[in-house]
């Protein structure tokens, strides 16, 4: 079950005991920045091992704030290239808890 609350800026996922059936996968997301962040968090719900990579430009875009938040929840995440960017190796399930991410937009 997915509950979307745009006013609270929250999405709640329930069901499947937090498990993903595929326990190992190499995920290539091309140039999809939003997908890379969503999938990084999603695979943390499993008890598997995943690599997440994209096109070379994606390996320059920062994901460190998300990685650090997930690490605080007990997820093992290693940078396979430049620190703070994709590709990532993700293992160990997320523990129960909460974390917050704050979006900081650049001035134009």
Brief account:
The chain is of the alpha+beta class. The protein has helices at residues 33-43, 64-72, and strands at residues 2-5, 10-13, 24-28, 49-53, 76-79, 88-91. The chain has two helices and six strands; from the N terminus they run βββαβαββ.
Q: Can you tell me about this structure?
A:
This protein has 2 helices and 6 strands; from the N terminus they run E-E-E-H-E-H-E-E. It has 108 residues and is α+β, with helices and mostly antiparallel strands. The chain has a 4-stranded mixed β-sheet, covered by helices on one side. Strands 1-2 form a two-stranded antiparallel sheet.
Structure characteristics:
single chain, 108 residues, alpha+beta, 4-stranded mixed β-sheet, two-stranded antiparallel sheet, globular
Question: Helices, strands, pairings?
Answer:
Blueprint (H helix, E strand, L loop, with lengths): L1 E4 L4 E4 L10 E5 L4 H11 L5 E5 L10 H9 L3 E4 L8 E4 L17
Parallel strand pairs: 3-4
Antiparallel strand pairs: 1-2, 4-6, 5-6
Number of strands: 6
Helical stretch tally: 2
Query: Which structural class best describes the helix and strand composition?
Result: alpha+beta
* End-to-end distance: 39 Å
Quick one: biggest sheet? 4 strands, mixed
Strands across the major sheet, in which order?
Answer: 3-4-6-5
Order of helices and strands: EEEHEHEE
Mean pLDDT: 84
How much of the sequence lies in strands comes to 15-25%
Global geometry? globular
Poorly predicted parts: none
From the alpha-carbon coordinates, what is the Rg to the nearest angstrom?
A: 14 Å
Helix content: 10-25%
